[in-house]
């Protein structure tokens, strides 16, 4: 039995790699839908990029629905300085997708899919949590129907500010709704995603794989690495981490924690405040990924690209 998932994303180079991993021949995941949200670039560009990746990965029948074009309260935030003006700069992919966007809003697709399910769909948000929060507010009956949420976001430090990671900072109010929803959450923040580094030796191994998907990923990592020069040994593959976990949980270690999202701090807006020791007296609400087996992660990722 394949695990049913909905990927909510803002592609984005690492989002694209996450979709390719989920759709690969080594995956045990069944993608029910892909929903898009404003984040790395505007939601229109993100949606086009999701369609382009579906063309590349053969996801011809999976619906792609466009969602929120801004956060719940704040002005839209983008990361074109990391991903380029298109959100997928540096790749040789066709600029226009063949696949067409679904004639429904992402929030409505989320609600429809979850209500019709047997409670066996896992949500995989790898962008800002705006769509998920709106869906929860619009139709609270979906909350007990969510099997779990495996998200990329947050951490004990930030990358958009010293305190806040981009996805949470882009819509902290939405993140707070999701984290306080009572839904089982597995959280893949910067503490673990910065262990999934595409070092030069990994990129060299990747370029030796003879497949269009591998060639596209090599281009993505080469472009995307520019944002990491001088700070890390390579580009961090943030968004593939929750997908890799769902395929092979043994690659990761997770710890129970209470995580609250700061929405009012002058210097800490978007911070995910993690309590591992019970100091707040509040019950844990997430399983927080702290470690990954780097060789296991890369073996899975390379095998996925070889499967195309």
Kindly name the structural category.
alpha/beta
Oligomeric state, counting identical vs distinct chains? single chain
DSSP, total strands: 11
Mean pLDDT: 95
Placed side by side, the strands forming the largest sheet appear as 3-2-1-4-5-6-11-9-10
Major sheet details:
9 strands, mixed
Low-confidence stretches: none
Total helical elements:
12
Portion in beta strands: 15-25%
Q: Shape from CA axes?
A: globular
CATH superfamily: Ribonucleoside hydrolase-like
Q: Provide the helix percentage.
A: 25-40%
CATH C-level: Alpha Beta
Give the C-alpha Rg.
18 Å
Q: Cα distance, first to last residue? A: 21 Å
- The number of distinct structural domains comes to 1
CATH topology: Inosine-uridine Nucleoside N-ribohydrolase, Chain A
Task: Explain what you see.
The protein is an alpha/beta fold and 308 residues long. The chain contains twelve helices and eleven strands. The protein has helices at 13-22, 43-57, 80-83, 106-115, 130-138, 166-170, 172-179, 190-193, 200-207, 212-224, 240-247, 294-306, and strands at 3-9, 29-36, 64-66, 121-125, 146-152, 185-188, 197-198, 235-236, 252-261, 272-275, 286-292. The chain has a nine-stranded mixed sheet, with helices on both faces. Strands 7-8 form a two-stranded antiparallel sheet. Strand 4 (121-125), helix 5 and strand 5 (146-152) form a beta-alpha-beta unit. Helix 1 (13-22) packs parallel to helix 11.
């Amino acid at each position: 039995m394949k695990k049913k998932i909905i990927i909510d994303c803002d592609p984005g180079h690492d989002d694209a790699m996450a979709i390719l991993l989920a759709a690969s021949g080594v995956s045990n995941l069944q993608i029910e839908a892909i929903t898009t949200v404003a984040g790395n670039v505007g939601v229109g560009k993100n949606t086009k990029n999701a369609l382009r990746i579906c063309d590349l990965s053969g996801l011809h029948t999976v619906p792609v629905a466009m969602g929120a074009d801004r956060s719940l309260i704040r002005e839209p935030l983008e990361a074109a300085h990391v991903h380029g003006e298109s959100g997928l700069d540096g790749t040789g992919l066709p600029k226009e997708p063949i696949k067409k966007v679904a004639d429904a809003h992402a929030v409505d697709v989320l609600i429809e899919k979850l209500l019709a399910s047997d409670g066996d769909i896992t949500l995989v948000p790898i962008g800002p949590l705006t769509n998920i929060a709106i869906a929860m507010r619009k139709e609270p009956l979906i909350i007990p129907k969510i099997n779990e949420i495996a998200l990329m976001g947050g951490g004990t430090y930030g990358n958009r500010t010293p305190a806040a990671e981009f996805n949470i900072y882009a819509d902290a109010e939405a993140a707070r709704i999701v984290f306080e929803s009572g839904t089982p959450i597995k959280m893949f923040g910067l503490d673990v995603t910065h262990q999934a580094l595409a070092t030069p030796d990994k990129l060299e191994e990747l370029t030796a794989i003879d497949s269009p998907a591998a060639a596209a990923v090599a281009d993505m990592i080469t472009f995307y690495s520019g944002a990491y020069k001088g700070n890390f040994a390579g580009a961090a593959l943030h968004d593939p981490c929750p997908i890799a976990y769902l395929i092979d949980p043994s690659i990761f270690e997770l710890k129970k924690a209470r995580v609250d999202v700061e929405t009012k701090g002058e210097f800490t807006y978007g911070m995910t405040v993690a309590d591992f020791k019970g100091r707040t007296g509040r019950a844990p609400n997430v399983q927080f990924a702290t470690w990954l087996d780097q060789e296991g992660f890369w073996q899975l990722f390379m095998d996925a690209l070889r499967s195309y």
